[in-house]
Design goal:
- By secondary structure, this protein is α+β, with helices and mostly antiparallel strands.
- 54% of the residues lie in helices and 21% in strands.
- Among the domains are: 50 residues; 101 residues, Tetrahydropterin Synthase, Chain A.
- The protein has 9 helices and 8 strands.
- The strands form 3 sheets. It has a 3-stranded antiparallel β-sheet. Strands 6-7-8 form a 3-stranded antiparallel β-sheet.
- β6 and β7 form a beta hairpin.
- α3 runs antiparallel to α5 and α6 packs across α7.
- The longest helix has 43 residues.
- It is rod-shaped, with a radius of gyration of 51 Å.
- It starts with a helix and ends in an 18-residue tail after the last helix.
Length: 285
């Protein structure tokens, strides 16, 4: 009876040891075995793997791509603007042995390096680069992370800067700057249009100088355009040269007589006729 209980106990211990020596490794994992604290050369692939009871310790390493958000970091840019920038890092393990042996906790190590690198990028960049040239900053941040990560058996696949938070005063200043820039562009466009119009008018004036009939045709065209709008009053331009011609053609004597008549009328006397001045009658004494 005692022998039977001993055999049952031994069988249970054997089954317990066999159960503790069998491990399952999934498809996206790799196993690193340490025997009495010493690294075994070969890594274990997916499936069932057997370990030496008591002697072996299995460390499973995830080989999938890990998405790690980097908390928002506050810093001062090279042009003295305070900003808050957050990012996201995509990485995966390429060497499970280095991940187990070279670094204690590679997730924490990558997170700390990412935060420090992000603050460094903020201090080395201008505000315009953070807002408009993110591709180059992403490449620089990826290079800064990839240098220590390769020694840990980790490869950085991609780094993206997600958001750049600006102070409210800076947002208002940028809004005013953008408005001033749009106003400047509109004035430049208006000035360029006036310059082009003045050049065309100068060319038209040269043509009209060479061909005077063109000016008359343009005058008639203007009259037609004004008359087509159902106006009750028609404004007809009168050439100043015609007035000057009539002034030169008027005789000087006629002009003098007309002036004398106007003066006499103003004084209440009759105007002289043919150069003879009438004599007023003398009252009887």
């Amino acid at each position: 009876m005692i022998t039977m209980w001993v055999l049952i106990t031994i069988a249970a211990l054997v089954l317990l040891l066999l159960g503790s020596s069998v491990r399952v490794i999934t498809q996206f994992e790799r196993g690193v075995v340490l025997r009495f604290g010493q690294l075994r050369d070969a890594t274990r692939g997916p499936g069932l793997t057997f370990l030496a009871p008591v002697a072996d310790r299995l460390h499973k390493v995830n080989m999938q791509v890990v998405t790690m958000p980097v908390p928002a970091q506050e810093g001062i840019t090279r042009d003295n603007v305070t900003v808050r920038v957050d990012a996201v890092v995509y990485y995966r393990v390429t060497d499970p042995v280095k991940v187990v042996v070279e670094v204690q906790n590679y997730d924490t190590a990558i997170a700390q390096v990412a935060q420090a690198s992000l603050r460094s990028i903020i201090g080395k960049s201008d505000l315009d680069d953070l807002l408009s040239n993110r591709e180059r900053l992403n490449q620089g941040l990826e290079l800064m992370l990839d240098t220590p990560a390769l020694d840990w058996g980790v490869q950085i696949d991609r780094v993206e800067i997600k958001d750049v938070a600006l102070p409210e005063t800076m947002k208002r200043s940028m809004s005013r700057q953008a408005e001033a820039e749009r106003e400047r562009r509109s004035r430049i466009i208006t000035a360029e249009g006036e310059l082009q119009a003045s050049r065309k008018l100068a060319q038209a004036a040269e043509v009209m100088t060479e061909h005077p009939a063109a000016l008359q045709l343009r005058l008639l065209q203007t009259v037609v355009e004004v008359a087509a709008e159902k106006n009750s009053t028609l404004v007809l331009p009168f050439p100043v040269e015609l007035l000057r011609f009539l002034e030169r053609a008027t005789p000087p004597a006629a002009g003098t007589a007309t002036a004398a008549a106007d003066t006499a009328a103003a004084e209440g006397r009759s105007a002289p006729t043919n150069g003879v001045v009438p004599i007023s009658p003398v009252a009887d004494r």
